[in-house]
Amino acid sequence: MASLTREQGWLGSPPGATWPSAETAHENPFLQFRSLLWSYTKALDAGWSDQKFVATIQRLDQAVADIDGAGFRHTPLGLAPQLNESLGRTGSLWVKDETNNVSGSHKARHLFGLALHLAVDEVPLSTPLAIASCGNAALAAAVIARATGRPLAVHVPTWADPNVLDHLDDLGAQVRICERQPHEDGDPCVLRSREVVSQGAIAFGCQGTDNIFTLDGGRTLGFELAASWVEQQSVPDHLFIQVGGGALASSTVQALVDAKYFGALSTLPHLRAVQAAGCAPLNQAFQKVAASTVAEPLEAPQIMEPWPNPASAASGILDDVTYDWKPLVWALQQQNNQPVVAAEADIVEAHRLTHAHTAIDADPTGTAGLAGLLTAHADGTLDPSASAVVLFSGVTR
C-alpha cells in the first residue's frame, strides 16, 4: 500500500475491503465495486443494509439516465490496430473510451461518487453544491446535481463557451461568471467557489484537494481497468493518462495500487502522466522534488506553483496548478518515471490520428494521453514493442 496519507491526497480503499469476486460482476461499476467504496463502508457503519445501498445506486443511476440518456456502465477497453499501425509501433495499443460515459467523459464518475456520500450522510437536499469549471466537470456536475435534486452553483471564467453555459442553464445549474479582481492571485473561479464552500456549500468538483471523496467514484475507472486485465490475464507495460488538475490520474493510480494490494494484479503498468508543453506544472513540481535534498520533499514549500499563461489545444488540461499532484509524483518516483511533456504538435497530431483511424469522437483534451505516447515514442522513452493503454475522455462538443 501507499506510504502517503489522506492529507497528501491518498484515499485508497476502506479497511477490510477485498477485491470483488467474479460472481459479483455487474455492468454498473458502482455496483460491481461497491465493496471498495468509502460510501459503502460509511453506509454499513450507519446501519444500512447492502440492499439499501444497492437500491440507492439504482435509483440515482436511473435518474441520471432519465436526464443524460444512459446511466453508468463499464466503458469499453479495446485494441486500436489501425491507430497503432499509423504510429509505426509493434506493441499493442489499447484505448479505454470514456466519451460515451455519462456526460461524455470520466468526470461524472467523481461526482456520482460524491452523490453517494451525500445520500449516505443524509445531507439535506437544500444544501448548495459548488464547482469551479466551464467544461466537462461542470457539465457532469450539473447532470448529477439535477439527478439528485440538489442546487448547484457553477463558477465559470469570463471566456467560457456560450454553448456550455446554455447547457448548464438547461440542466438547472446556477452559472456565476467570475472576473479576476485586482491584486488577486489564483484562479478566480476556484477562489469564488471556495468562498461559497466556506459559507456552507459543499465542494462538488473533481479536485481531491477540495473534497477527497471525489476520488472515491473516480477510482471505478481504475477498477474497471484492473478487472479487464484480470480477465485478459495480461497487464500492459505503460498507461498514459492526461493530467490537468490530476484527479483522473490520481484516482486511477490509487485504484490500481489497491488492486495489486488485494492480489487481483501481480504487477502494475508504468504510469506515464501526460501534460501539454504549454501547461506543465506537474513536471515543474516533479523536477523540484527530484532535486530536493530535504527529508520530506513533497511537503517542502513552493513545490507546486502556478504555470504562467497556460496554452494548448487540449484546453481541458490547462489547470495552472495540478491540485492532486502529490500521489502522482509519489507514484512516478516509485517506478523511476517522470511526467511526459507532450509537444503541442503532438497534441494536435494525436487528435487528428484518432479521428483518422478510429470511430471515437474525442476532443484534443480527450486524446492528450495519446499525444504523450507520440512524444515518448519520438524521444525514445517508449520501446516501440511495448504494450500501452491510453484513456480517451472528453467527447467533441
Structural class: alpha/beta
Question: What's the number of helices?
Answer: 14
How many runs of DSSP E, i.e. beta strands? 10
Q: Using the coordinates shown, work out and report the CATH topology of the largest domain.
A: Rossmann fold
Strand percent estimate: 5-15%
Q: Low-confidence stretches at least 5 residues in length (pLDDT < 50)?
A: none
CATH class designation of the largest domain? Alpha Beta
Q: Could you give a short account of the major beta sheet?
A: 6 strands, mixed
The global form is: globular
Supply Rg: 20 Å
Describe the structure.
The chain is 41% helix and 11% strand. The protein has 397 residues and is an alpha/beta fold. The strands form 2 sheets. It has a 6-stranded mixed sheet. Helix 3 crosses helix 6 (136-148) and helix 9 (214-232) packs across helix 10. The chain starts with 28 loop residues before the first helix and ends in a 5-residue tail after the last strand. The radius of gyration is 20 Å and the shape is globular. It is built from 14 helices and 10 strands. The longest helix has 19 residues, at 50-68. 52% of the residues are buried. The chain has 2 domains: 27-68 and 106-203, Rossmann fold; 77-105 and 219-392, 3-Layer(aba) Sandwich (Rossmann fold).
Concise account of the structure shown:
By secondary structure, the chain is α/β, with parallel strands linked by helices.
